[in-house]
Design brief:
Elements: E1 2-6, E2 13-26, E3 33-43, E4 48-56, H1 59-66, E5 81-88, E6 106-113, H2 119-122, E7 133-134, E8 153-156, E9 160-164, H3 171-174, H4 180-192, E10 201-205, H5 209-220, E11 224-228, H6 232-238, E12 252-255, H7 262-266, E13 273-277, H8 289-293, H9 304-312, H10 316-321, E14 325-329, H11 334-345, E15 357-362, H12 366-373, E16 381-385
Parallel strand pairs: 10-11, 10-12, 12-13, 13-14, 15-16
Antiparallel strand pairs: 1-2, 2-3, 4-5, 4-8, 4-16, 5-6, 6-7, 6-9
Length: 388
Amino acid sequence: MGTMLTRPPGHRRDIVLRPAATAMVLLAAGHPHETIAVPGVALGEEDVLVAVELSTVCRADAEAARGARRASTPVVLGHESVGRIIALGDAGAMAVDGSPLRIGDRVVWSATVSCRQCDRCLCGRPQSCRSATRYGEERVAADRELAGAFASHVQLRPGTAVVRVPETLPAAVLAPAACATATAWAAVARVRRHRDLGGTRVRVHGAALLGLTVAAIAVELGAVVDVRDPHAERRARARDFGATGFDGEPDAVIHTAGPVTAATVEAVADGGVVVVVGGDARDADSPAAAPAAGRKTGDGAPDADAADLAVLALDVARLSARSTTIAGMQGSTAGDLADAVAFLAGRGRAYPFADVVGSIVPLAAVDAALAAATEPGAPLRIGLVPGP
């Protein structure tokens, strides 16, 4: 692919793409995607243009496509990608490690764009930025057609954490890094604020990609890990990611899927830590959780509001007496993303992350990929590559 650079008036750089970039646009939930051609982009001074190597379908993408999660349509979905820089704005841009990014760098990037100036950003929570936007959620507009991963290119804005990645790591390992891997690292790091993981018994609820990644990271940091999931095949797969199980109370619980029940929280040992990641109640944590929650969503999973009621019924006096720490978290920081990539490039090579992408299809087949992602027995991730 060739590029032709022209300089417009002002502080933006016009980049004309030959052939044109393509993006898959969801016009409305439940409707097929439309392909649009993007013959060029206007790069801001610190923007970065990346040619996508591989994107992966997260459950959130599938839910937005079918209307189970709110989306500002029309939108280019997708927030898990790996790609290569093909153009930079006039001022250039910096990687998370503080070095300047260069054309040709292979990179992954954060799902969130933060302002870097609000109180939340300044206190180390850019994922909760007061003016945050997310790739794959921004409504298509002029000069913002390439703001999601289901495209041949993504235009990265200032406030995006960009991390160089090794050429030797498979794209299937790297694409989920900005979402599942970085969030898993952040969850384990949250536990480590309170206790060393050496010999610690960690129970992980949920054996989708996030839970499996949490298991592998915790094991490599010295923990003994037990993974709970209602699906036998998922529990079996957890062994490949280091989960051996244990008897007795967990010292820490990391909850990655399904409704959070009082029993889940109160199972932790005296002085234990409970980290709740995200709070999505669409994946049932256990078959018994549904009757307790009561109401159901359209897909048969416990209603999110009903699941919250179970948490409100906690025995607060008991938790206080046992010095239990409960923490909620969402997303990850630039440091988490950098640490996640370092893990994948190092100790993470011992685990089958290369196998998490069960199938790879052309970008044009995005509707079929989104439908397949929520079918029973679906692979952990389905990959999309630019092309017909």
